[in-house]
Amino acid sequence: MPETLAVGLDLTEEQAQIQSTIRDFVKERVAPRAQELDEKAEFPVDIFQGLAELGFLGLSIPEEHGGSGFDTMSVVLVVEELAKACASTALGYAAHISLGLTPIYLFGTKAQREKYVPQLCKGVDDNGKLTLGCFGLTEPGAGSDAGGTKTRAEKKGDHWLVNGRKAWITNPHYSRTCIFTAKTNPNPPKGKGITAFIAELDTPGFKVEPKEDKLGMRSSDTAQLVFEDMKLPLDAVAGGLEQVDVGFAKFMKTLAGGRITIGALALGIAEGAYNKAVEYARQRKQFGKPIGEFQGVAFMIADMAMEIEAAKHLVYNAARLRDAGRDFALAGSYAKLYASEVAMKTCTNAIQVLGGVGYTREYDVERMLRDAKLCEIGEGTSEVQRLVISRTVLGDLRGM
Ligand SMILES: Cc1cc2nc3c(=O)[nH]c(=O)nc-3n(C[C@H](O)[C@H](O)[C@H](O)COP(=O)(O)OP(=O)(O)OC[C@H]3O[C@@H](n4cnc5c(N)ncnc54)[C@H](O)[C@@H]3O)c2cc1C
């Protein structure tokens, strides 16, 4: 069989090694459990412990900070492979590394890096309990308009007093730290007044609500965070006190990076559904021949292959730009938007190829479709990506 996907997208030796390791891990430990995890809406603690053993929870963080010293492209490969089998696991992994860990590494002070980053890279404590990271930006009243945050942090003598609520946060029941935004200036100049804080989840006044009951990504952990008179030390400001009121930009930068991993997540889901469709189109017979011989089915498969290939180029390109230290914000939006829409279309058509069985819980394309929908919502909806792209192309025409 000729290679039909990833034509010309060569990996370095190290990246190929990561890909091979995660493929074996997924085959042995993730794929056999994906359907059951979805049915039970159960968070895969043991799979995360396995990822921790592989050193993958700090994959892209330099070794001197407790990570494994690989790159964004390697993270993309891990997310993609996990998502081919279990998108919920891939989402939890992507959120931990891109949102919970990376901003503390990138924007934290030396003391914050030393305090939090090695433990987040390790991902488990001495008792095997997960110590993931989570990221609190969204609020019940501030989603796409994330700057509309209502969570308030007031400076009271030697501490901050935090009150508010965050919504739709990934991984909080399995996290030790959370980096989140709060308003620190009630009447700020435009684009200012929001500060990023780092808090430990066992801080008095910090509560995690029960897990949300979702359409898809059912075994990932999503919940609201509540801050009720939570006291944080003054040095809980990410990046130090000079970063008070200017934390929002950090979160926007973090989201730009996170979009690459959500692109990888969508790509993996699309490939997972495509693989099922190809396998079925080869073996299922109707009218005395494999259904893949019918042009209606074969052309759906051709479109899937072409669109997945295009998505892969966009996602890998965004990762490579980031690894090269170049501007990747627009490339990340292209990747996230396109791959998410390819994932939805591929999953819909994979169900079509499988016919009635594709519509049942017995075959996993139905789960993949439910999981794929999240990619068009999380880390900036498809509409928000189109805003980012069109404003880059047209310039910001607001107020003209
Ligand atoms: C499973 C899951 C996990 C998540 N994990 C996290 C997490 O870890 N941390 C975190 O902070 N957040 C997280 N989120 C939140 C996610 O980022 C938001 O749901 C998303 O940004 C959209 O916000 P919203 O749900 O409030 O929708 P809204 O912003 O209310 O949008 C509703 C609709 O209006 C459209 N819309 C809004 N504004 C515009 C506009 N200006 N132009 C055109 N259309 C517009 C949107 O595209 C959408 O279709 C998660 C969400 C989910 C579902």
Bound molecules: flavin-adenine dinucleotide
Any guess at the CATH architecture of the largest domain?
Up-down Bundle
Beta-strand percent range: 5-15%
CATH topology term of the largest domain: Butyryl-CoA Dehydrogenase, subunit A, domain 3
Distance between the termini: 56 Å
Structural class, from helix and strand content?
A: alpha+beta
- What is the CA-based Rg, rounded? 21 Å
Mean pLDDT: 96
Strand order of the largest sheet: 2-3-7-6
Backbone shape: globular
Q: According to CATH, what is the class of the largest domain?
A: Mainly Alpha
Helix content: 40-55%
The H-level CATH homologous superfamily of the largest domain, spelled out, is Butyryl-CoA Dehydrogenase, subunit A, domain 3
Tally of DSSP β-strands: 9
Q: Give the uncertain stretches in residue-range form.
A: none
Order of helices and strands: HHHHHHEEEEEEEHEEHHHH
Q: Major sheet, described briefly?
A: 4 strands, antiparallel
Oligomer: single chain
Topology (elements, then pairings):
Layout: H1 13-30, H2 34-40, H3 45-53, H4 72-85, H5 87-107, H6 110-122, E1 132-136, E2 152-156, E3 159-170, E4 175-183, E5 194-200, E6 206-208, E7 222-233, H7 248-283, E8 285-286, E9 289-290, H8 295-323, H9 329-354, H10 365-375, H11 382-394
Helix pairs in contact: 1-4, 4-5, 4-7, 5-6, 5-7, 7-8, 7-9, 7-10, 8-9, 9-10, 9-11
